[in-house]
Every structure is written in structure tokens, then in C-alpha cells.
């Protein structure tokens, strides 16, 4: 069994493949993900730094009061401390968005590039026209120019999404809102008393949802600034989380009934060479097919890695077509292609067709169950481990997936095992599905 990662050396050779290697094959375009890798990395890092700078600069109490001396200081005469702090609150919100989008830039996402360009233009305008921070405006403008010049490097389409991302965004933004509001209270002057940390945190949380907290200020202006800052952050969090939750989910390509039937047909003809082939029938797998339909690959996307498991399913002559389709999809989404658990022939073809490199992890062992025994000195360690596991009450049960009604796992539902066998008290149950 081998694990496949990005190519970093010569491909391993497998016996009997000289004829296959000598056959002409079409040249594939170079992997765009490996070209100018410094562009998305640098762009993402700069966006991250600018976002942090906007949050720190916009959340400083002294910076908020500088508005009274700015060309917009006349706002204070209309609504003291409220309208004068709006642009600083915009800085904080822009900074939070840049932090969220910097990861998308590093992954070459086109939507992230478009959003960052818009946010940087708005940030540069605020710094140049309102705050008179020409250095900050120049940095944002320079990044806009660089992103525009290298706009072709940000080509990746969006990932499949679910509404669980809204929960993650809510947790991250809520934590950032509390930290920003608490930092304001820790460094601001003019508090009515020496409040404890718990009281300050409580006041921030209350103001984020529109209520007054225990912290009071000596001046109305500073209180207004704090209320606008926390209220703006709360509304921003609500809008972002609401958008992520209400937007239509982009479906993930899961194993369909027709895919399962086609895979079983391929396994019936070619499955004897790969003991891991049937794992492609797991319903949490995504399937991609070759153009001829004679081969397919099961995979999952984990943290930006498109991870295939085992050899491609089907006729080895059709494996290159499935591998090309796999790599094309990885390139379209800017995912990192990788394979785990493939065989020697699969490793050779993956390295030849996909430009990957092989790392040997181990080998398989086939056990003749009818003649297998734990007796004898060589099996002493195995016997000890079996005894230890049995003492903890673990039970192993071999069942076919089709024999499990409604996908209800007996080990979790607490129902008795077939045949009237009771589960020991406190025992856990493992299942091996064939």
C-alpha cells in the first residue's frame, strides 16, 4: 500500500510495465497550482496583515476620537460620538472580512479575489480621504495593483458548501467581536468605575445584541462610540451568518444508486486485484468517472486536499482516463491531489499520469481464517492484546451493510445482538462491514 503526494522525485517502476510506459500518451498541461505559488501566498499574507491593521487601527480608542479633529468633525455637532466613529467601525468590519478572505486568496479562489479587490478599494478610500493615513492607503492601493496584474492566478471556483459553514462563521465572528469590544474597554479611559473582567465581558456581549451592560462611562461621547462599535459588529455578524445560512447549498457529489450499480459491475469484473475496491461503495464518498465510463475513482475533500482511496476501479487500461478527470477537477478547485492506500501498479500509474510521488506505508496480509490460531510462542503478543481487549468488554461483529436495517448500528442503538447475545455492561462494539 502506498500514499501518493505531490511529485518530489522520480516515479517508482513496477515490473511488467515497460510496454505500457512506452505507449504514446497525450501531453497534459502543466499544473497551474504549481506555477507562481508565491502570488497567492503573498497576496493572502498581505490581506491578512492589512486586515489586522484595520482592526487594530479602527478599534483604538484614541483613533476614534481623532475624528473630532478631522474634516468630518462637524458630524460630532449633529450626533456627538456616533457618526464620527462610523468610518472607524467600517475599518474594523473590513479588517474582519479581509481576515476571512485571506485563506481563500491563498487557495486561488476567484470569488475571494473579487471581494478582496472591492474591500481594498473601499479601505484605501477611507484611509486617504477621511483618516489622512496616506501610507495605509498606498499599501492597499499597491496590493490592488498587484492583484490586478496577477488576476489570472486566481482561477479556482468555489468549494461545495453546506450550511454548517454558517455555524463556524458565527463562532469565529462572535469571538472576534468580544475580543475587539473587550480591548476597547481595557484601553479606553473615562469608565465610571473600576469594573471587573467579568463585568466588561458581560457588557460587550450585551451590547452586541442591543442591550446595555453593567459598564458605564463618564461622558456620553465615549459611551456612544462604544455602543456604535459593538452594535455595528453585532449587525455585521448577523448579516454574514444569515447570508451563509440562507444561501443555497452547493451539492456535494455523493455516491448515487446508479453509481453504486456501475461500481459493483466493475468490481465483479476487475475487483479481485484490489481488496480495498469495495470501500468505494461507502455513501460518504464522491465518485468521478473516466470519459469512457470504464473506470472511476472514489475520493473525499478534506481541508483543501482531494484525497483518493485505493486504486481506480475498473479496467487498468482505463485508469489514466479516470486519473486525468480526477486531476482536472482538483485543478479547477485548486485542491491538492493525493492518494492513499493504492497498490504497486496504481502507484506507478498515478506517478506517471499525475506527476505524483510514492511513499511506501506497508503491505497487506491475507489470513486463512480456517487455519489461523493464536497458539504458539510467535503469537504470544497477539494473545495478550486479544485478552486485554476482551477484558474491557469489546465485541466484534461481522455483518454485511445490506443486512443492517435502516443503517441502524446496533452498537449505538443498544439493541441486543442477533441470536440473543447480550452486550456486556459498559462494553463498546466494533463493526466490520463486508
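^ Assign residues to that structure.
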Amino acid at each position: 500500500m502506498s500514499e501518493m503526494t505531490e511529485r518530489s522525485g522520480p516515479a517508482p517502476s513496477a515490473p511488467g510495465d515497460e510496454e505500457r510506459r512506452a505507449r504514446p500518451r497525450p501531453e497534459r498541461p502543466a499544473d497551474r497550482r504549481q506555477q507562481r505559488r508565491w502570488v497567492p501566498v503573498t497576496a493572502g499574507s498581505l490581506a491578512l496583515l492589512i486586515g489586522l491593521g484595520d482592526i487594530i487601527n479602527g478599534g483604538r480608542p484614541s483613533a476614534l476620537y481623532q475624528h473630532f479633529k478631522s474634516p468630518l468633525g462637524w458630524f460630532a455637532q449633529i450626533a456627538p460620538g456616533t457618526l464620527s466613529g462610523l468610518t472607524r467601525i467600517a475599518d474594523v468590519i473590513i479588517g474582519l472580512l479581509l481576515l476571512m478572505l485571506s485563506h481563500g486568496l491563498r487557495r486561488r479562489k476567484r470569488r475571494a479575489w473579487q471581494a478582496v479587490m472591492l474591500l481594498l478599494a473601499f479601505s484605501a478610500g477611507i484611509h486617504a480621504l477621511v483618516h489622512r493615513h496616506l501610507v495605509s492607503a498606498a499599501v492597499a492601493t499597491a496590493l490592488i495593483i498587484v492583484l490586478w496584474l496577477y488576476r489570472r492566478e486566481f482561477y479556482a471556483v468555489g468549494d461545495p458548501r453546506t450550511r454548517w459553514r454558517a455555524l463556524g462563521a458565527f463562532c469565529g465572528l462572535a469571538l472576534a467581536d468580544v475580543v475587539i469590544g473587550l480591548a476597547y474597554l481595557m484601553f479606553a479611559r473615562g469608565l465610571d468605575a473600576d469594573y471587573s473582567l467579568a463585568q466588561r465581558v458581560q457588557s460587550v456581549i450585551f451590547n452586541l445584541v442591543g442591550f446595555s451592560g453593567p459598564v458605564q462611562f463618564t461622558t456620553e461621547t465615549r459611551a456612544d462610540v462604544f455602543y456604535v462599535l459593538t452594535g455595528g459588529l453585532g449587525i455585521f455578524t448577523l448579516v454574514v451568518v444569515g447570508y451563509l445560512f440562507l444561501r443555497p447549498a452547493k451539492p456535494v457529489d455523493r455516491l448515487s444508486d446508479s453509481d453504486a450499480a456501475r461500481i459493483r459491475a466493475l468490481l465483479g469484473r476487475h475487483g479481485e486485484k484490489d481488496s480495498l475496491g469495495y470501500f468505494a461503495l461507502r455513501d460518504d464518498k464522491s465518485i468521478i468517472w473516466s470519459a469512457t465510463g470504464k473506470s472511476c475513482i472514489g475520493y473525499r475533500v478534506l481541508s483543501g486536499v482531494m484525497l483518493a482511496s485505493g486504486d481506480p476501479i475498473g479496467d487498468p487500461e482505463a485508469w489514466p482516463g479516470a486519473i486525468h478527470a480526477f486531476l482536472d477537477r482538483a485543478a479547477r478547485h485548486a485542491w491538492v491531489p493525493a492518494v492513499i492506500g493504492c497498490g504497486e501498479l496504481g502507484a506507478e500509474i498515478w506517478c506517471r499520469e499525475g506527476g505524483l510521488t510514492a511513499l511506501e506505508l506497508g503491505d497487506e496480509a491475507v489470513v486463512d481464517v480456517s487455519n489461523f490460531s493464536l497458539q504458539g510462542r510467535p503469537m504470544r503478543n497477539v494473545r495478550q492484546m486479544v485478552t486485554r481487549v476482551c477484558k474491557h468488554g469489546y465485541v466484534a461483529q461481522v455483518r454485511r451493510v445490506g443486512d443492517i436495517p435502516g443503517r441502524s448500528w446496533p452498537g449505538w442503538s443498544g439493541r441486543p445482538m442477533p441470536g440473543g447475545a447480550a452486550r456486556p455492561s459498559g462494553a463498546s462494539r466494533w463493526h466490520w462491514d463486508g
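The longest helix spans residues 220-246.
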